[in-house]
Amino acid sequence: MELDSYYDGVHGWSGSGQQSAPVIEPNGLFTVRFTPPRSGTFIYHTHLHDYRQLPMGLYGPMIVIDPDQSFSARRTTSC
0.90 exceeded by the pTM? Predict the structure, then answer.
């Protein structure tokens, strides 16, 4: 998904100018609000300690639908 660099999640690196993404401590929060640029299926994942965090489940899908559609986990489509 196309996002501003700040929201990409690489602490101390993502962002521009004086604004760079913070380290999110255990039990900490980093709230991101954005409007997705398009519909589709995307993935989120960790950028820190990948070898530990990915096996622990710090990744998953993001399903973005158009405003006039509804989502059903039971519905399937064929290409």
Answer: no
